[in-house]
Design goal:
With 109 residues, this protein is α+β, with helices and mostly antiparallel strands. The protein has a single domain, classed as 3-Layer(aba) Sandwich (GIY-YIG endonuclease). The protein contains five helices and three strands. It has a three-stranded antiparallel sheet with strand order 2-1-3. A hairpin with a 6-residue loop joins strand 1 and strand 2. The chain starts with 5 loop residues before the first strand and ends in a 15-residue tail after the last helix. InterPro entries: GIY-YIG_endonuc, GIY-YIG_endonuc_sf, UPF0213_domain. This is GIY-YIG nuclease family protein. Belongs to the UPF0213 family.
Length: 109
Amino acid sequence: MERDPCVYILASGRHGTLYIGVTSDLMQRLYQHRAGMTGGFTARYKVHRLVRYEMFGDMEGAILREKQLKRWHRQWKINLIESENPHWADLAVGLGFDPLAAGGRRNGS
C-alpha cells in the first residue's frame, strides 16, 4: 500500500479552533473528519476546514513535524497558515471535496 505521510491543520473557521494531525492518507482522513467519523475534538468543535498541509517522504518526518507544530504558540501557527493561505480558504475543495456548509460540515451530511 502506498503511503503519503502528511501533517495537516484543520480550523473551525478563520482564526478559530485549530487541530493538528498526522496521517498516511490525507484524502481518507479528510473524508473521516468532514463526515464526523473521527468523533472527539474535531467533531465537538466543528473543526473541519483544511487550512494547511505538508507532505513528507516518510512517516517519521511527519510525526516529528506534528510534534513540533503542537508545541508552537498559537500565533506562530496562525502566522504559518497565513503565510500560504491568508484567507483561510478550505484547501480540501481544491483536492476534490465539496465546500463545507455554513455549520462546518460538508453539504449533505
